[in-house]
Amino acid sequence: MDKIKIGIVGYGNLGRGVEMAILQNSDMKLGGVYTRRDPEALTISTKDAKAYHINDALRMRDEIDVMVLCGGSATDLPTQSPEFAEHFNIVDSFDTHANIPTHFLNVDKLCQKSHKVGIISVGWDPGLFSINRIYAESILPVGSSYTFWGKGVSQGHSDAIRRVKGVENAVQYTVPIESAVAAVRAFQTQTFTTRQKHLRECYVVASEGADLNRIETEIKEMPNYFSDYDTTVTFITNEEFAASHRQMPHGGFVMRSGKTGENEATNQMIEYSLKLESNPEFTASVLIAYARAAYRLHQEGAYGAKSVFDIAPSYLSPKTSKELLEELL
């Protein structure tokens, strides 16, 4: 059986994770890595694959079944996803929640033109958490939904700290407040404020002679990032940072507390959780499963933009329908 040929656009943490995920799936092979950097200076792990400049991607459109786009949601994917969807089946991890409807329409316009499949906003949130929210709210229409993130590294918040004057390096962990999680599990349905759901823990390496009090105040009062949260700032050395804060863990919970039965007197709870040692490696594994779905849909003649809501679970698995019925149902 011919293997699904996957192209990777971008070779940062997520792109490298996609390459590793391809190696774990026997029905796939890496068709190439496409980068804005000098491809000759890029060392990839797959021995029989090559790196190319991103400008060379179009001439290889017949050699790639699905392009997995690994750029950032702020500036890369809004333009790259439609551009590549005009020529390739694509999967991306666009995660700016408020802009997903517009992104979907932009990708769909080009997919309709090219008769390609474009699956957008794939990952764990948006992605797997989104699926669990729709399942839970459909099954328990009377109830309340809650999402808690962490404990894990927020890359955007960490970057915001690093932009503060006098900060050499920094990492920020989002931490769910246990009392809030416990209240939901105890069927105490309530509306939580932002401050009641999560803490922000910041670990900062300051420049020599920097004003630590000013840095701490500036972080804690930063609007849109920290001012609405209880935030701690801990100053550490470069050595401590290298020893304890180089990993990229994350995770969280999706919870639905609902009522069923006569007079809605029966409590029901749906909970889905993730505990991840590597956010990018896990997200990459989700992208690869949906790349399989994009390939299969295109083989069937489907085209257009899709979200995770549109993809049947069987399209994600390498198993046959018979195997799924026998082994997993």
What does this structure look like?
The protein is built from 11 helices and 14 strands. The chain is of the alpha/beta class and about 325 residues long. The strands form 3 sheets. A 7-stranded parallel sheet has the order 3-2-1-4-5-6-14, sandwiched between helices. A 4-stranded mixed sheet has the order 8-9-10-11. A hairpin with a 5-residue loop joins strand 12 (about 250-260) and strand 13. The longest helix has 21 residues, at about 280-300. The mean pLDDT is about 95.
In short:
The chain is an alpha/beta fold and 329 residues long.
Q: Which structural class should the secondary elements be placed in?
A: alpha/beta
Q: What summary fits the major beta sheet?
A: 7 strands, parallel
Percent strand: 25-35%
Shape: globular
Which properties best describe this structure?
single chain, 329 residues, alpha/beta, seven-stranded parallel β-sheet, four-stranded mixed β-sheet, 11 helices, 14 strands
List the helices and strands and how they pair.
Blueprint: E1 4-9, H1 13-23, E2 28-35, E3 51-53, E4 66-69, H2 77-85, E5 89-92, H3 100-114, E6 117-119, H4 128-139, E7 143-149, E8 152-153, H5 155-162, E9 167-176, H6 178-185, H7 194-197, E10 198-206, H8 212-220, E11 230-235, H9 238-244, E12 250-260, E13 266-276, H10 279-299, E14 304-306, H11 321-327
Parallel strand pairs: 1-2, 1-4, 2-3, 4-5, 5-6, 6-14, 10-11
Antiparallel strand pairs: 7-12, 8-9, 9-10, 12-13
